User: Fold this.
Amino acid sequence: MKKILFSCLLFSFSCFAYSTTLINGAGATFPYPLYSKWFAEYQKTHSQVHINYQSIGSGGGIRQFLEKTVDFGATDLPMTDEQLKKSSTTVLHIPTTIGAVVLSYLLPSMHEPLKLTPQTLASIFLGKITKWNDPALVALNPGLKNLSQDILVVHRADGSGTTGVFTDYLSKVSSEWKSKAGSGTAIHWPTGLGGKGNEGVMGLIKQTPGSIGYVELIYAKMNKHPYAWLQNKSGQIVEPTLQSVAAAVDISSIPADFRVSLTDSPQKSAYPLSSFTYLLVNQTMDKTRGEPLLPFLRWSINEGQSFAEALSYTKLPKELIQKITAKINEIRIK
Amino acid sequence: MKDQANFWMSKQEQRHYQIRKSYSYGMHTALVVATLLVLAPLCSILGYVIFKGAPGFNLDFFTQLPKPVGESGGGMANAILGSFTLIGLAALVGIPWGLGVGLYLSEYGKQRSLFTNIVRFSIDTLASLPSIIIGLFIYAAVVRSMGRFSAIAGGLALSLLMVPIIARTSEELLSMIPMHTREAGLALGLPRWKVILWIILKGSLAPLSTGVILALARIAGETAPLLFTAFNNQYWQSGLDQPIASIPAQIFNYATSPFDDWHNQAWTAAFLLVIIVMLLNLTTKFILRTRRA
Amino acid sequence: MKSESNDLNQTIDEPITAVSIDSKKHQPAGLYLHGYGDFIFANLLRLFALALVLMLAAIGFFLYHAARPSIAASGLNFFIENDWDPIKERFGIPAVLYGTLVSSFIAIMLASPLSIGVALFITQIAPRSISTLLSSLVEMLAIIPSVVYGLWGIFVLAPWLRETVEPFLGHYLGFIPLFQGPISGVGMLTAGLILAIMITPTISSILREVFLAVPAAHKESALALGFTRWEMMSYAILKSCKKGIAGAVILGMGRALGETMAVTMVIGNKNEISASLFAPATTMASIIANEYSEATDDIHLAALIEVGLILLAVTFIINTLARLLIFRNQSRSHNK
Assistant:
């Protein structure tokens, strides 16, 4: 008995004392691979700075940041006005990269990528189009003519910034969607199965012929799974690539605080399901946190961008980087 | 044998006996079938875990910190250490508490007493709470007041998960010890508390350890309560009041990422978890093997 | 026997010593503390038990406090209206409650007989060498993290059900509403099966210890009376361990009600009540786990916590019913 308790005591003290600063951040899952690369690369030149980021979701990141249990947050969707009111300090949104939501599907008989218009997409997710050989789909995809299979919709069961971006887009392009389901990180879905996380949705799609669902671009790419081309606002049918995602950014229409939605962009070759992902920081930071964090922020939008494309993330446009740098210069360290 | 049966039983009784015997053999077969039905998914899952996890076993896994995607050689050394720390903390609080409650119920609890029944209900209810709710409670109680995530909060959350399991199993097992064991101790002149500790408790360490191992196995694999309490940490531990890495949290992170390399590490970690708890189980059984009553 | 155990409980403050008959005259000096040790020990244990109850009360109070905005907003509609819409801020739990209860029910129905069977096999029939191996194997099932169960469920169990089992059931038993409807591999049946697999090792490990603790005299006397092997198991072991079996099953049921990760990955997460076992559903634990991280609206958070509170209440009710049913006529006995 005594031995057991003693060994428990030993176990619990198997920790090391360190004198480095640990900076904690939490938030979106989408940029996690890029951020983890950044923290490791940054540590090569600044060995005392340990940045510990956990991907608990955009909403979780916002909440923990507001409750001050973490030093910075990360989110795919910008904070709303009510959320900003809850903070006692001014919160800055720093865009770090641009992500894309794609529609992945399993149709073994289709050898070309699926092409969808906003209306057909909304109808599929509303449950109005139920078979793959529906005339509206066949119009753009002749290969579907003889496929009378049911469409199985897969959406996210858990709340997520990805859902937020997707439903934001659907609300913009379909008034019926807006009134029936709305936009948000977790909604009441008219139809379909819920998978847990991007990989849950991907897993369901991979197993179920005739299924279609939305995931972050990187998940479909890594799983080498086909994803659809979308028709954007200016009528072009666009393939989701790093270039078309970057094209969604219209510098002139970006507000000073960077809180903007990039979905359904009117730009010519833009992919309509793109979105920024942000880091959330306080405008005034204390010395222990601010001194390591501020140089890192500058590094991330400059040197950090060079790591983005290798990991299938979109680099920020140069004009935007200048604007963001100006914003970062507003940060004060007490 | 058969002649004796014929001698003592009438024809009718013989037939009845044959029916009972075949029923008995039939039930034996049913038991074997039940065991096979339980073993089938076990083999499937274990096989799956081993198949996907074994290839990743290398020295790097045990000694390196996590590396970003695209760089090979990353490991989970901090998570392994972190899990041990968390389990140690949880056990420090959970085992004495759970055993204490179990002892109370089996030794001092009166069947009809209101308090005893309340305690029993509390155990059952706590055992059914989703682990995430316990995590949320510790978040509100400990993390918010400390202002940060910490290993202590994680350990507390895990201990709350352990206590009901240990309390219930120890109560069950201790109350099965016949009364005359206690009476013998008392008759020898020992005070009651010594009877309970030295004789009852000490004598049933082996079966009690099953309950403890079950509880430890349960918390070793729990992710949800740690998300809001211990948070997770990509680096070596810097203190008990800081976020701490753990194997299930790392498994969750890696399994839900899009990268095959990280997926493989997640499976390897799951495999490691199984091995660790298995080793714990075998070691405990070995130490206690001579003490089974 | 019974009166003696009552005596024991009532005299906790005085050590029962062999010389207590003429305690006044022959008090052995210095050998006993006149009950201090017992006093401290007994009250220490009482403190532990009280702390447990208080902890549960604290959790319950915390849940109630955090759920108050939602209780105020939805009131009784929470139980009647079946809608889970975070955007329109309308929350109702009938489908969620249904999913939790049915999936746990399936799990218990499948797991209890199997666990009892396995435990009996290990303790009574299997030769020593195999039984140690078997019990270690079954315990290994308990160790696997629920995330891994979920992944195995998506990649192995769900496809198997979708391609083999569910079409079979739908074809031959399709006249029963339980087996009708579209088949996707994930749904109530998959979740129930995975839960059953997850709680079996818990129940059978406990039962194994319980069955082993039955005194050999019981078993031998039954056999001596001419019982067949199975009859001996049924009467000498199962009947006398009813309390232990009930306890183990209740613990397993608790695990099933609260299981989150594995269930959420294979249940399809659809907020609908359907008679079919093939249909997707949702459970209380999984809806909390899915949406809690992302919920930023206060009312959404409060609604999720209200679900947790209701889960607490449901567990409480089920446990009470189980105890009443099983222990109605039984009195506590230390030996039989």
Notes: Residues 62-292 of chain B form a domain with the MetI-like fold fold (CATH 1.10.3720.10). The CA atoms of residues 8 and 14 of chain B lie 9 Å apart. Chain B has a mean pLDDT of 85.
